[in-house]
Automatic annotation (TrEMBL):
Pfam families: ANF_receptor (PF01094), LysM (PF01476)
Protein name per UniProt: LysM peptidoglycan-binding domain-containing protein
Listed CDD domains: LysM
Region (Disordered): 70-90
Compartments where found: Membrane
Record organism: Salinimicrobium oceani
Stretches with biased composition (Basic and acidic residues): 71-90
Signal peptide: 1-20
Gene3D superfamilies (alphabetical): 3.40.50.2300, LysM domain
Length: 643
């Protein structure tokens, strides 16, 4: 996977707190020049060089440029807009409570499209009370919008809508705030929706309840005299969650509105997952109270000087591996909070910079209010996460360790999300034991893997043993004596030495024709990533190993990858995915039980993009994740979870 575009997060986390300017990434196309890009974004070439100093030396295809959008772009309209804006006069309007684009269009006698045209954020965002927008004066527009037809019962303007792929009648009715029945009356020849179809729509109040679609939500028409408070009591959902699901409520509740409400019908079908024993907590949400999270990460903002240029900040982060991991993880946390919001789970999150030391963690614990915190995620390092857990243990606040794999001391509130190396090895031995019937087991272990060899021989006393010679060579005579042509050979390879691994995989690959060989290990250490180890050989040998995470399947996680890529300009790396999986699991567990401990004690295994979670009580106190994948290569080098 590509490295995450860190500059975006730098601006978001460090800079955008002070400046309103927004930025995006531009991927350079073959043959594109800075002049071409400047024209595309209506900015100067000097602006491009300001944020991308290296661009002065030329552009390379697929390079990423940071370009400012928003304020500067509005100040420099494109050629197509200059002449029009020179002749267009505007009024500034401060949005009042319950005002809508439709009411403003009627008030100023202009179309909704004209208002959006000069306030481009309204194409994707709702009107917000108190914001100032530009309203073009009708007299200065080239064409005066048509008045609503006098015979129209709802006194609304007709317009056309092009049906998008996967759009539904319900989605269109919500978009234009009309009923499905109105849509059908306006389009009497419409049978079924097809992408590209042009239909008539209009804006106004709904008349009826909209039909229900989808298993996770139901839809409700607001009745006269109803209030937000009565709706929250009726549907058992908090006000924040209701507004999160229905952004239009920020302008006030109106009779006739159609609201999106979580569907808690127990009879609704549960979505199936890959594994039969995996629990889908999205279907078990019952607690819609806002969740309060604290995320503690070593952002090391103290190393960033406010007067640093963008290139200097970028260079500092490139040299700080911990800061890179923190920003990657942080991006995944934000994605999880956003995904939970679409399910009606509102989250109040506080990000705290630990600066990577326990002393700063203690100061943060003493200076911040943790009284209503449901869970703390982080810090990342063993010493700091244990400090946080120790400081919050008396308040029974769960502290989730997202990356450490060493067991902590006696801490009842410590949740370790990464299984230990010993647990990984035990899971692999268990898998081999379950499937050993009819197999010829062979163990290759060098002098550095004495403990692993002891554990394997204790588990499989009938296994044949081959010891690599000095220099890593494998005796062909010993291997020939150990292998069996009449049945499958499962060869367990244990070593951290590149020479041993390279020689063993190369030789086993060369004799894989006459022998049926499957290669396994209890410890896929970093030496397996050496260029001297052929992935083609590993694929041919159907290499099996235990893992905390699986490689995500783009076809099954398309929505997550697309949303992340759209937001950050790159595909998520393992730390971004881990940030998402850990945070999303915590939020769903909090939303499906009275508290995190209850969910851990009552629910089974959960699974997300790359990671799964199933916690056990630790003898010393606290909890540890015991969910482990067994992964295997196939001949096409696809990595599949076999358990």
């Amino acid at each position: 996977m590509k490295k995450i575009a860190l500059l975006f997060l730098i601006f978001q986390f460090f800079v955008l707190q002070s400046f309103a300017q927004q930025y995006k990434y531009h991927i350079v196309k073959a043959g594109e020049t800075t002049s071409d890009i400047a024209r595309q974004y209506n900015i100067s070439e000097e602006t491009i060089f300001k944020y991308n100093p290296d661009a002065r030396r030329g552009l390379k295809p697929n390079a990423k440029l940071v370009v400012p959008i928003g304020a500067e772009r509005e100040q420099q309209p494109s050629n197509g807009e200059k002449k029009e804006q020179q002749h267009t006069e505007f009024e500034m309007h401060r949005v009042k409570k319950q005002e809508t684009l439709f009411s403003l269009s009627q008030q100023y006698n202009v179309s909704i499209e004209d208002i959006k045209k000069y306030n481009k954020h309204l194409y994707s965002q709702e009107l917000k009370k108190g914001e100032k927008i530009r309203i073009p004066k009708a007299s200065s527009l080239k064409e005066t919008p048509l008045a609503p037809p006098s015979g129209n019962i709802l006194d609304l303007s007709l317009k056309e809508h092009v049906v998008l792929p996967q759009e539904t009648l319900y989605g269109i009715s919500r978009k234009y705030n009309i009923t499905i029945a109105d849509l059908q009356r306006l389009n009497p020849t419409m049978q079924t929706l097809q992408p590209g179809m042009v239909i008539k729509v209009k804006n106004g109040n709904v008349e009826k309840v909209v039909e229900v679609e989808g298993p996770l939500f139901k839809y409700y028409q607001v009745q006269p005299q109803e209030t937000l408070f009565s709706l929250t009591r009726r549907f058992g959902i908090s006000r924040d969650s209701l507004v999160s699901l229905n952004p239009a409520l920020a302008d006030g509740l109106k009779s006739g509105m159609v609201l999106k409400i979580p569907n808690n019908d127990d009879a609704a079908p549960v979505e199936e997952y890959e594994e039969a024993d995996v629990v889908n907590l999205e279907r078990r949400i019952s607690n819609y109270e806002p969740k309060n999270l604290v995320v503690m990460l070593p952002f090391n903002k103290n190393k960033i000087v406010t007067t640093d240029s963008t290139s200097n900040v970028n260079e500092r982060i490139r040299k700080d591996r911990v800061m890179q991991i923190s920003l990657d993880f942080y991006s995944g946390v934000l994605m999880a909070i956003d995904s939970a919001r679409t399910l009606g789970i509102s989250t109040n999150v506080t990000f705290l910079d630990t600066e990577g030391n326990s002393g700063k963690v203690n100061r943060l614990l003493n200076s911040h209010n943790f009284s209503n915190v449901d869970a703390v995620i982080g810090p990342l390092v063993q010493s700091t996460v244990e400090t946080a857990a120790r400081g919050l243990e008396s308040r029974n606040i769960p502290v989730i360790s997202p990356l450490t794999k060493k067991e902590a001391g006696s801490l009842d509130n410590f949740l370790q999300t990464v299984p230990t190396d010993e647990m990984l090895a035990d899971a692999m031995i268990s898998y081999i034991s379950e499937n050993a019937n009819g197999k010829n087991l062979v163990i290759i272990a060098d002098a550095g893997a004495v403990e692993k060899r002891r554990k394997l021989t204790a588990a499989f006393p009938a296994a044949r043993m081959v010891t690599p010679r000095e220099g890593g060579n494998i005796s062909q005579a010993e291997m020939a004596a150990a292998l069996d042509k009449s049945r499958p050979n499962w060869v367990i390879l244990e070593s951290t030495k590149i020479g041993v691994l390279s020689n063993a995989t190369s030789y086993l690959n060369s004799i894989a024709g006459p022998y049926n060989i499957t290669l396994l290990t209890t410890d896929r250490n970093s030496s397996f990533d050496s260029d001297n180890i052929s992935n083609t050989h590993l694929g041919k040998l159907n290499f099996h190993y235990p893992s905390v995470e699986r490689s995500y399947d783009p076809s099954q996680n398309r929505n997550f990858i697309k949303k992340y890529s759209d937001k950050y300009g790159v595909v998520p790396n393992r730390y971004a995915v881990r940030g998402f999986d850990v945070t999303y699991d915590v939020l769903l567990r909090l939303a499906s039980a009275p508290d995190l401990y209850s969910s851990i004690n009552e629910e089974g295994t959960t699974q997300y993009v790359e990671n799964k979670f199933d916690y056990d009580l630790r003898p010393a106190g606290g909890y540890i994740n015991k969910a482990i994948y067994i992964l295997a290569y196939d001949r096409n080098l696809n990595l599949n979870a076999v358990r």
